[in-house]
Design a protein that fits this description.
The chain has 15 helices and 11 strands. It has 529 residues and is α+β, with helices and mostly antiparallel strands. The strands form 3 sheets. It has a 5-stranded antiparallel beta sheet.
C-alpha cells in the first residue's frame, strides 16, 4: 500500500511540474482577426458568450493593448481588466455590431465618451485593432465609476473573476484611500502570509505522518531524520503555491503585482527545485540500495553521475522557466548560444575534456569507486567520480581531486582490480644451517601455502635462491586472495607468524647482518707460547 501511495505522490509531483511548465510557456496566441473596430468588438463580446457560461478571458484580453503592463503579470492583469471592461460596457449600452464601423483605414474609433475617460479602439503597430493603452489604464476607474449602475436591458452580465468577486464584497470604507494599495489589500497580505505558514506546517505534518516511517522502512540506508529531510520541501512547496495563488485574488496594481509575483515565482521555483532534488536524492537512495545488493560495482559509480545529471537538468529547466516567465526570449537565447557555440566551446575546452573523461570512466570502467589505483604520482582509493573530476583518498588520508581530462590518455594502474595480491620477500637463514634443515624449511613453507584457503595454490615459488653476503636467502613468492589492502596485511601477518613458528620448530635460525673478523699473525712473528 505504501509503494502505491508513493507512486501516486510522485505522479502528482510530476504533474505539478508539467502543469507549471505549461503555464509558464503557454501564452495565448495573438488573434489575427482583429482587422477593424467591428471585428475587435465582436471577438471581445463573443469571448464572454461561450458555451457553458465560462468566458474565454484570454481571448478577451487579446483585444486589449497591454503593452504598458509588466510582462510577468500581463496575462493575469489582462484577464482581470477584460472582465472589468465587459462590466463597464454592459452598463453603458447594448452593442449593435452594425453601428460599429468595419473600416480598417480609420485612425481610431471612440465607443463611448460619456464617462470620465473615453473608451477608444485604435490599430497597433501590427495593424490589429485594440482597446488602446489609455483605455486600458482607465478601466479600473471606469469600473468603479459604473459600479452603481444597472446592466442595460438585453445584456447578459458576465461572471466576475475571483479578484473582482473578493473586491466587491469588501466594505466600502476599505476600498478607498491607502498608500500604493487599498486598506483591505494591506490587511489581506499578512493574513495570506500567516495562511501560507500554516499550510506549510500542515503539509509537513501530514507528510511526516503518512510517509516518513514508510520511507525509512523501505530503504535500509535511509533513517527517519533522512526521510524527514526529503519530505521537508513539500511544506515549502505548499506555502509558496498558497502565496502565489493568493495574490491573484487580491487584484493588486501592476507595479506591486509584478514585484510580488516575481518574488513568489522565484520562491515557488526554489521550492519546486528542492522538492525535485529531494525526489532525486530518494532515487539515489534506492539506486544505492540496489547497487549494494548487486555484485556489479559499476552501479556504485553510476549512481552519483545519474543524480548529478538530473539535478543539473532541474537547474537548467528552472532557469529557462524563470527567463520565459520574466519575458525573456528563450528562442533568441538558444539561437544566440548556437551562434556563439564556437566561442563557448573554445572557452570551455577544459570543461568538455573533463566531461568526456567522466564519460570514458563510465564506459570503459578502468576503475570503480573503492578501487586502489595509481595514475602517475597519484595513488589511493577512489571515493567519487564526478562531472569534472575524480576524487582519490590517499593513504596519507589526504584527498586529491584529479581532473577527468587526464583519464582520457592516462595509464591507470588499478590495484583494486586484482583477484590475487602478490607478496614477494626473502627469508635469510644463517650459513651454519644444515642443508637438510634448509630443504625441510622450504618444504614446510610450501605446505603452509597449500593449507591456507586464502592463498593461490597454482602459482607460488619457495626456494633457496641466493648466497647472500651474510646469510642464505630463501625466496618466498606467493599470492593472497584478498579484496583489499587491509585483508592482505592481515593475511601476510598470519603467514609470517606461521613461518616463524616453523623455523623455531625445525631449529632454523633467522639471520641478521653479522661480520666475522679473523686475525692472522704477520710474517716473521713467532706466536707466543
Amino acid at each position: 500500500m505504501h509503494a502505491s501511495f508513493l507512486r501516486r505522490i510522485s505522479l502528482l509531483a510530476v504533474g505539478a511540474l508539467l502543469a507549471a511548465a505549461w503555464f509558464a510557456f503557454a501564452q495565448p496566441a495573438a488573434d489575427t482577426s482583429l482587422t477593424s473596430p467591428r471585428e475587435t468588438m465582436r471577438v471581445f463580446l463573443e469571448a464572454f458568450a461561450t458555451e457553458g457560461g465560462r468566458p474565454d478571458l484570454d481571448a478577451a484580453a487579446s483585444c486589449l493593448d497591454l503593452g504598458d503592463l509588466p510582462f510577468p503579470v500581463r496575462a493575469r492583469q489582462g484577464r482581470n481588466l477584460a472582465n472589468e471592461l465587459k462590466h463597464v460596457i454592459d452598463r453603458l449600452e447594448l452593442v449593435e455590431f452594425d453601428a460599429i464601423p468595419d473600416d480598417s483605414e480609420l485612425e481610431q474609433w471612440v465607443f463611448s465618451d460619456e464617462l470620465s475617460a473615453p473608451i477608444v479602439l485604435a490599430p497597433d503597430s501590427d495593424g490589429r485593432w485594440l482597446f488602446d493603452r489609455s483605455t486600458v489604464a482607465a478601466i479600473t476607474a471606469l469600473y468603479q465609476e459604473t459600479s452603481e449602475r444597472t446592466v442595460v436591458e438585453g445584456v447578459e452580465e458576465a461572471p466576475v473573476t475571483a479578484a473582482l468577486w473578493l473586491r466587491d464584497r469588501v466594505p466600502e470604507s476599505l476600498r478607498s484611500g491607502g498608500f500604493l494599495l487599498y486598506p483591505w489589500q494591506w490587511l489581506a497580505l499578512p493574513i495570506l502570509l500567516l495562511l501560507g505558514l500554516l499550510i506549510d506546517r500542515i503539509v509537513v505534518w501530514i507528510s511526516y505522518g503518512l510517509l516518513a516511517k514508510p520511507l525509512s522502512g523501505r530503504y535500509d540506508n535511509l533513517d527517519l531524520p533522512g526521510a524527514r529531510r526529503i519530505l521537508r520541501p513539500t511544506g515549502l512547496l505548499g506555502m509558496a503555491a498558497a502565496w502565489w495563488l493568493g495574490i491573484q485574488w487580491l487584484g493588486l496594481p501592476p507595479q506591486v503585482d509584478v514585484w510580488l509575483d516575481t518574488t513568489l515565482l522565484v520562491l515557488l521555483l526554489l521550492a519546486l527545485g528542492r522538492a525535485a532534488f529531494a525526489q532525486i536524492d530518494l532515487l539515489g537512495t534506492a539506486l544505492r540500495a540496489r547497487a549494494a545488493r548487486s555484485e556489479n560495482r559499476f552501479q556504485d559509480q553510476l549512481v552519483p553521475f545519474v543524480t548529478k545529471t538530473l539535478k543539473l537538468a532541474v537547474g537548467v529547466f528552472g532557469a529557462v522557466f524563470l527567463i520565459a516567465r520574466l519575458g525573456g526570449d528563450v528562442t533568441a537565447l538558444l539561437a544566440g548560444l548556437g551562434l556563439s557555440g564556437l566561442a563557448v566551446a573554445l572557452a570551455a575546452q577544459d570543461l568538455l575534456k573533463n566531461l568526456f573523461g567522466s564519460i570514458t570512466v563510465l564506459l570503459d570502467r578502468p576503475f570503480r569507486v573503492g578501487d586502489w589505483i595509481k595514475i602517475g604520482d597519484v595513488e589511493g582509493v577512489v571515493e567519487e567520480v564526478g562531472f569534472r573530476s575524480t576524487r582519490v583518498r590517499t593513504f596519507y588520508a589526504s584527498l586529491i581531486t584529479l581532473p577527468n581530462a587526464r583519464l582520457i590518455d592516462a595509464s591507470v594502474d588499478n590495484y583494486g582490480a586484482r583477484q590475487f595480491r602478490r607478496w614477494s620477500t626473502r627469508i635469510e637463514v644463517t650459513y651454519d644451517t644444515p642443508p637438510a634443515s634448509v630443504d625441510a624449511f622450504c618444504e614446510g613453507i610450501r605446505q603452509l601455502v597449500r593449507d591456507n584457503e586464502s592463498m593461490r595454490k597454482d602459482a607460488f615459488e619457495i626456494h633457496l635462491n641466493e648466497f647472500g653476503p651474510h646469510a642464505l636467502e630463501i625466496m618466498v613468492y606467493v599470492f593472497f586472495l584478498a579484496p583489499d589492502w587491509s585483508t592482505e596485511l592481515r593475511l601476510r601477518h598470519s603467514l609470517a607468524l606461521d613461518i616463524l613458528r616453523l623455523a623455531d620448530r625445525l631449529g632454523v635460525r633467522i639471520a641478521f647482518p653479522t661480520q666475522t673478523i679473523q686475525l692472522e699473525p704477520s710474517s716473521g712473528e713467532t706466536p707466543e707460547a
